[in-house]
Amino acid sequence: MAIPALFRRLFTSAFAPRFVFGLLVVVLFLGGVELRRWTWDETRHVRFQHDIVNGFYWGSETLAEARRLSPDEASANSWTAFVRGYFALYDRVKREAYENDYRLDYPPLRLLVMSIWARQVRSDFPGVDDGHPKHVKPLLNVNLFCELLSAVAIFLLVRLWVRRSSGATRSRLLRGMPLPHRAEICGLAAAGVAWLEPSMILDTHGWPQWDVWIVPFYLFAVLAAVKKRWFLCGCLLAAGAMLKGQLLFVAPFFVLWPLWQKRWTSALRVLAGFATTVALLVSPWLLRNPAAWIAVAIAASLSSLFFLLHKERHAGAWIAGLTACAVFVVGAFDGGRFAWLQIGFLYGSEHYPYLFISSCYNLPSLLSSLGWSLKDPFWSGDFGPLHFTLTLQWTLRLLYLGALVLCAHSAARHTRNRDPRLLIAIAAPWLLMFALLGQMQERYLMWGAVVSAVALAVNVRLTVLHFIISIASTAMIVHVMLIDKKLDPTLHAIDVFNGVRSYASVLVLISVAVCLWNMLSARIPVFQTGRAESSEPALSLGPAPEEV
């Protein structure tokens, strides 16, 4: 009798939920790791080898530049030589490019990661062939780490916002769960779905690619914004953009969000954090001599003196932002080099002048099937002696920018009302980017598929739409992987994918439109924030005060 009584006490106490929660986390983690290992093993015949070879090639070019700049072979393998070669590579590529065709389109941090990886491979396998790099596992481990961080960020974000909305959720399933544990259950459900997202696993361990590296930066930037840590938000966005420039498409969302709340200083703090991080990372290219460093130090000292004497709020953010501006100004007027900007960001935006690349389910794909191309004039007009032509490319960009403004407005409104639909507002920029913009690649819907896992904490309708987007994202990646190899057993599948592209594009656009409608609708929330429903103190419905 003592043993059954002991079990009853254990499972009626606070221990049981925590034990079950911890067990679920362990099972999800181990299952996800094993699924990724299985994906890597089973996709070896259709693996997209080009991206691995390309990363290894440019990492090896950094090492070659280090050897070229070293006085002897002994010092060529040192970390000092490595750093010298890394900072010199962009300038060499720009100098040797034929008709501005650089071939390199890596932002600074991604080039650094690939260079470190190539250095390790060259050290472990001295005679390795450039076209068949070995030891890819370190990059897969980086992918795994970023995937895990993304799942953790989604858990923290969903749990925080469900708590702030007094446990409210439009999901009928989750509304039936006990209120004290609802935030944790919502967070774990969303994080588990994101962790097991098939398109992300296929992208990171089947293709493999490095798109997932920016996901945790975006999600933790959202978390910082929700907690009013706007400077940190800007820093995270800049660091992520230095890994993959596509993050810049959604970055304006974080400036527009506080502007809709009429918090001008918050928007400036985002910009200050962004500028500070970029300036810190690229200062070796911009500040080429001691005089430039001294000029920046003087600017930093003067701004510090001014803001500290006036006891300005958020003085650290303003000092850092002004110092960053000084770095760019001094670099522009004192011989700083901007090849990292031209090659790492601008070149990639014009390298593929097509409405879409490979196989995409979006609006540009439909327009292409109707005979449009990226640079076709969409509208033209005369204003006095001036003639303006608006291309389809810029029409789609303006359409996306308008939709991004609506996303920021919804985020501001849902933040004020403590509405769970804020979670949809933070996923919408990624979905709209893929649905509307030209020059998208099939993998880019993966970002929206991962972030939209937060829909599990909102309602069933949006949860279903998340899975539709997830299936579409996975299908596009599978399609391109099969096209690259064109093995006989896969030819029928390729024909099927080709045949459903237009229908799938319409389905994705409808799904994104429904998400947008749910985000923008002004219906009265089905929940009331109050003491009767919440186990926590009542939360004010007014704008949250700025944090110091």
What does this 3D model show about the protein?
Among the domains are: 49-124, no CATH class; 394-520, no CATH class. It is globular. It has a two-stranded parallel sheet. Helices cover 69% and strands 3% of the residues. The protein is built from 24 helices and four strands. It has 548 residues and is mainly α. Helix 3 crosses helix 5 and helix 10 (198-205) runs parallel beside helix 23. It has helices at 2-12, 15-42, 49-69, 73-76, 79-96, 108-124, 137-164, 172-175, 179-195, 198-205, 215-226, 230-241, 247-250, 252-260, 264-286, 290-309, 315-333, 339-351, 363-369, 392-417, 422-436, 445-451, 460-485, 491-520; strands at residues 356-357, 377-383, 386-391, 440-441. The model is unreliable at 524-548 (pLDDT under 50).
Put the structure in a nutshell.
The chain is mainly alpha-helical. It has helices at 2-12, 15-42, 49-69, 73-76, 79-96, 108-124, 137-164, 172-175, 179-195, 198-205, 215-226, 230-241, 247-250, 252-260, 264-286, 290-309, 315-333, 339-351, 363-369, 392-417, 422-436, 445-451, 460-485, 491-520, and strands spanning 356-357, 377-383, 386-391, 440-441.
- Rg calculated over all Cα atoms: 25 Å
Total number of helices: 24
Major sheet details: 2 strands, parallel
Order of helices and strands: HHHHHHHHHHHHHHHHHHEHEEHHEHHH
Biggest sheet strand line-up: 1-4
- What's the β-strand tally? 4
Structural class by SSE content = mainly alpha
Amino-to-carboxy terminus distance = 57 Å
Proportion of helical residues:
55-70%
Average residue-wise pLDDT: 87
Tertiary shape = globular
Low-pLDDT stretches are 524-548
Q: What fraction strand?
A: under 5%
